Amino acid sequence: MKRVWWILALPLALVVAAVGMLVVPNPLGAKVLAEAKYRGLVAYTPDEAVTIAYTRCSGCHGAEKMLKYCARCGPPFIVVTQSMKKYVELTNQKHETVRPFSDSEAVAITQAWNGLIGNWEAGWGEKNLRRLLQGDVALTRLLETPADARPIELALKNKSAPGSYPE
To answer: What DSSP state is assigned to residue 62?
Structure first.
């Protein structure tokens, strides 16, 4: 009987400990949750997406450059994000230590900039955008999703980034 008790109690204790680690605020739980979001297991909130967009993008260039980006400057953010993913991959081949963009990060960043600055994907044509995305599955799936069905972009629809010129 004692052995059965231990066999039942041990898995239950592990589940309670794991839930407690995620529910009770602590550094380890925050790291586990951040990694789960990076891997796409948990969705980013709109505020987290904006934070990630600023922190990841400002690692290479200033926020002012991002905020002044517009439809006259170049392709939609979905293409820019894919280019940045490729750039980081190429940089890391030269033994740099830049953390690669995950698919969930790229999707969140694209939606954040689309929501804050503007989404001009419609003016480029889906066929052209698909070619520019070079087979990126996550961003192609985002391209196929209507703008009103994108949760982060929809939440940021009526907001704008300070210093930007929304399209």
So the answer is: -
